UniProtKB/TrEMBL annotation:
Keyword set includes NAD: no
InterPro entries the UniProt entry points to: RNA_pol_sigma-70-like (IPR039425), RNA_pol_sigma-70_dom (IPR014284), RNA_pol_sigma70_r4_t2 (IPR013249), RNA_pol_sigma_r2 (IPR013325), RNA_pol_sigma_r3/r4-like (IPR013324), WH-like_DNA-bd_sf (IPR036388)
One of the GO biological process terms: DNA-templated transcription initiation
Name of the protein in question: RNA polymerase ECF-subfamily sigma-70 factor
Annotated ranges, domain RNA polymerase sigma factor 70 region 4 type: 106-158
Keyword Transcription carried by entry: yes
GO MF term (any one): sigma factor activity
Natural source organism: Bordetella hinzii
Length: 167
């Protein structure tokens, strides 16, 4: 006697379709599975009744999850200069090196001046002085979350303003 599979309901009805669709588009099976599991977990943890089209929700969630993975992997790994050994520092010799350093220094000062005072102070204490976020929060009388937001704002601003100076 032949067994028939019961019809799949809910998110399970879309699971195989999700995997197949995104794997056909060239994404690694493991990445697609991880992202699909995250999307399904978010769906199950949230208010399912608020989602009118679970299929579209899952596809869009997997799309965004895969895009986030791509962006995380494509970012160049940045290592602070102070963490490099002396021989690993980028070499800049000649008269242009001094001019480039002076130009970058001016651009950094100008970019910091464009920031609100709390953002610039948080950046300076954290990145230049080596303070931790909780230390800065305690010193300024702010929440850790506020200090993190100031630091994020400062880093984004400096990245956009100084991007032209990166090698």
């Amino acid at each position: 006697m032949r067994r028939t599979r019961p019809a799949e309901h809910g998110w399970l009805a879309y699971y195989r379709e999700l995997l197949g669709t995104w794997q056909r588009k060239g994404h690694a099976a493991g990445d697609v599975e991880d992202t699909a599991h995250d999307a399904i977990a978010n769906l199950l943890e949230g208010d399912v009744s608020a989602i009118r089209n679970p299929r579209a929700y899952l596809h869009r969630s997997v799309y965004h999850g895969l895009a986030n993975q791509y962006h995380k992997r494509s970012r160049a790994a940045a290592i602070p200069l102070q963490d490099l050994d002396e021989g690993e520092h980028p070499a800049q010799d000649g008269p242009e090196a001094g001019a480039r350093t002076a130009q970058l220094s001016r651009a950094l000062r100008q970019a910091l001046d464009e920031l609100p005072e709390p953002c610039a102070a948080v950046f300076a204490w954290h990145r230049l002085e080596g303070w931790t976020v909780p230390e800065i929060a305690s010193h300024m009388g702010l929440s850790v979350s506020s200090v993190e937001k100031y630091l994020t704002r400062a880093m984004r601003h400096l990245h956009s303003r100084l991007h032209a100076y990166s090698p």
